[in-house]
Amino acid sequence: PLSAPRSVYICISSREFPANCAKGGKSLDEFSASTMVPTMDSVLAQMHDLLLPWWVEICFLIFFPLGYCFIYLDLSGKGRSKKGAQGAGRGALGTAAESRAEKVRKTMEEEMAAGNAPAAIKAWRQVQMKVASNVATLRLAVQALAAVSPSTMVEEIVGHLETHASWLCNTKSAVTLLDAAAHIHNAKLMEELHTALRDHLAIPPTHQVYEALLGGNAVDGNEQRVDELVAEIRSTGQTVTARGYSLIIKGFLHRGMLAVALRYVKAMRNQGFYVPPFAVGLLGRVAVDQGKAKEILEELVEAEVPLSTEVLVILVEDAFRRGDLPQANRAEAAARSSGMETLPAFAYDPLLKLNVSEGNLHALELFAEMQKAGHRIGEGLCVRLLQRAAEAKFLRFAEEVTRYCKSKNQMTVSLYTTLMKVYSTSGLYNKACDLYTEIKELGLVPDSTMYGCLMRFAAECGRTELSQELSQQVPELDIQNYMSLIRGAGRDKDVDRAFSVFGRLKDSGAKVDMAAYNCVLDVCASAGALSRGRALMNEMRTRFGPLDIITYNTMMKGVCAAGDSKGAWKLLEEIQGQGLKPNDVTYNCMVNAAVTNGTFRQAWEVIEAMEASGVKVDHYTVSIMMKALKRYGGPREVERILKLLDDAGLDVCSEEVLLSSVIEACIRLRQIKRLQGLCVAYEKSGIRPSQHTYGSLIKAYNTLRRLDRCRDLWREMVEDRGMEPNDIVLGCMLDAMVCNERVMDGVALFRQWKDKTGANMILYSTMIKGFAGSGRAKEAMEMWREMKAEGLTLNTVVYNALIDAQARLGQMDEVAVLWESMASDGITPDSITHSTMVKGYCVKGDMDKAFEVFRNMQKSGLATECIVYNTILDGCVKRDEMKMADMVLEDLKKNQVTPSNFTLGILVKMYGRRRQLDKAFQVVEELPKEWGFEANAQVKTCLMSACISNKALSRALELFEEIKLASSTIDSKAFGVLLSGCVRAGQIQQAVGLVEQAYGLNGNKRLLAHNDNILADNLGSLMRAISSKGLLETVGMPLLA
Question: What is the DSSP string of 892-947?
Answer without folding.
Answer: HHHTTPPP-HHHHHHHHHHHHHTT-HHHHHHHHHHHHHHHT----HHHHHHHHHHH
